[in-house]
Amino acid sequence: MNNRRMRDIREDIFFIGPGFIIFALIVLFSFVLGIYYSFTEWNGVNKEALWVGLDNYLQVFKGDEQAGVSAVFTLKFTLASVITANLLAFGLALALTLPLKNAKLMRTIIFLPNVIGGIILGFVWRFIFTNSFVSIGELTGSWFFELPWLGTPMTGFWASVIVFVWQRTGYLMMIYVAAIVSIDDTLLEAAYIDGASQLHMLTKIIIPLTVQAITVCVFLALSWTTKMFDVIFALTNGGPFGSTETFAMNIYYEAFQYNNYGLGSAKAILFFIIVGFISTAQVLTTKKWEVEA
Amino acid sequence: MITNKYFPRLFFIEMAVVVIALIYLSPFYFVVVNSLKPFGEIIENAASLPSTIRWDNYVKAWNTVSFPQVFLNSLLVTSFSIAGMVLMGAMAAWRMVRRPHKISGIIFVLFVAAMVIPFQSVMIPMVKVAKLFGLLNSIPGIVIIYFGFGMPLTVFLLHGFVKSIPKELEESAYIDGCSTFQSFFQIVFPLMRTMVVTVIILQTLWIWNDFLLPLLVLFKESIRTIPLGIFSFFGQYLNQWDSALATLIMGMVPIIIFFLILQNYIIRGITAGSIKS
Q1: I need a labelling partner for B194 at 20 to 30 A (CA). Which of A24, B31, B42, B46 fits?
Q2: What is the pTM of this model?
Q3: Which residues in chain A are contacts of B89 at CB distance < 8 A?
Q4: Cα(A247)–Cα(A78) distance, rounded to whole angstroms?
Q5: Residue B3: its pLDDT value, please?
């Protein structure tokens, strides 16, 4: 009996051990260490980190204007992008589940940006905003293309939203397509025979039956936008004047450019709490709709 | 769905979608046409077709970013990271489903809980931890770091999948005298294929394109991945758009080919993966 137990334990260690130990050392240990650093002042070079209690957290709220700017930018960017990307994705999914001639090709095209790295896409759009748009503006005289897209805080904000929406709509669209396709045709046919309007079919049948996909897509979009880093890092590098700096970028600069590891860690922990709070709140709300629907 | 029956608006919807698809493609048009022009021509008109096609920009880009080198580095990092995390993730997931007990239950909860931690929340101490274990500035080092960050999703997806595999197969294997190891590697692991493909696809899109993690742990020029190579090119030649655009094209071509070949798997993997999580 004892032998058998020993064998079970050995097998547990063999199967679960390697993956868990690496994960625990890299992720969990770092996370705990980060909480400790957030209460210290440390420049990353000195051997000892100096314990400062809650000073870093107070500093983030009181003495750090740029952290506030980047937090507000991230929230506004999240709100605008999550809504725009999901509405567009849902609309496209509705259109592309109709019997269109080139539906599959269109889906592929719209999905394509998703497979390309954010840093590449950011540079691509930096070129388009600063060069191609200018040329199109000269050719057509359209005000839209003559705006200084990456030159002012306002246009820089919308430039970031445009690039995000372009990059991610296809991914969300694919999830919506899968959900719409799985709706039982007989339901829609019955509604059609009963003379339901298109709008009614949308609001009474399609949306309620795809509410789970909506939860998933909003969740995904939230997790991309709140953590946005590489695309905007390449697109604007936070400019002009730090107005398009995301909170994730702010943490990066604080730690790896200004060498304030303690303050950076405090921001990182706050970031974890805020992102966690937003996603939990979202999942709980949409789950409630799912039940009602 | 709604309109299996013909209705005249279908044509206009089709037109609208075509226009949107063209808008989606337009960035690629701008990058491709301008990557073939000399610098002066780009500045003059960044929307037109090139007057003559010249490949000089590509030659310069290829050599400046040492493309074969960064491509190979990306390939090594991505493939080894994924091979390891799939193997370790599958082993752990299977064991946790088939022989559940208190400790493995806690471990599973830790994996799932870690999925909500944003990378930026642990990156600062992670660099310190990586240094402590000698994982900085080496390809095997970054591979091990990716194991750590990749485990949660891998275990989570495979854990859900193992539950759907009937136990009977393994039980009859035990009766036939198979050891635990044999029944896992010869019977269960091959059965996990569908979900393993999903995991491979999701993790490939992440690791191949990842920028921030390599930026923090790889400094030597010889071990840069594609995103890092492109980033440092832009650091040196900011706004030298002629060769810069060529690097961007070279950077995106491999993953676009990967996508076009495996398109159906990728789309399926993404929808399956996201509904589960």
Answers
A1: A24
A2: 0.93
A3: 19
A4: 11
A5: 47
CB A28 within 8 A of CB B115: no
User: How many angstroms separate the CA atoms of A229 and B160, rounded?
Assistant: 31
Shortest alpha-carbon distance between residue B6 and chain A (Å)? 9
Q: How many residues does chain A have?
A: 293
Taking only the tens place, the pLDDT of each residue in B51-104 is: 888 888 999 999 999 999 999 999 999 999 999 999 999 999 999 999 899 999
Query: Residues B174-188: what's their mean pLDDT?
Result: 87
DSSP A134-175: HHHHHHH--HHHHS-TTTSHHHHHHHHHHHHHHHHHHHHHHH
Task: Please state whether the peptide bond connecting residue A113 to the residue before it is cis, i.e. omega within 30 degrees of 0.
Answer: no
- Tokens 């007990």 found at: B101
CB-based contact B144 A26, cutoff 8 Å? yes
CB contact under 8 A, B122 and A31: yes
Determine the Cα–Cα distance for residues B253 and B13; give it in Å rounded to an integer. Answer: 31
- What angle (nearest 5°) sits at the alpha carbon of residue B135, between those of residues B106 and B83? 65
List A51's β-bridge partners, or say none.
A40
Of A281, A146, A152, the C-alpha closest to A215 is A281
Over residues A241-267, the mean pLDDT reads 94
- Determine the length of chain B: 277
B235 near A CB under 8 A: no
What element of type H or E holds A251? helix A247-256
In three-state secondary structure terms, A40 is strand
Select the residue of A108, A115, A216 nearest B205 (Cβ to Cβ): A115
Centre a 10 Å sphere on the Cβ of residue B65 and count the other Cβ atoms it contains: 24
Kindly list the residues from chain A whose CB atom is less than 8 angstroms away from the CB atom of residue B273. Answer: none
Contacts of A165 in chain B (CB under 8 A): none
pLDDT of residue A121: 97
Chain B contact set for A117 (CB, 8 A):
208-211, 226-227, 251-252, 255
The answer on pLDDT for B4 being more than 60 is: no
pLDDT digits (tens, 9 = 90+) for A211-248: 889 989 999 999 999 999 999 999 999 989 899 999 99
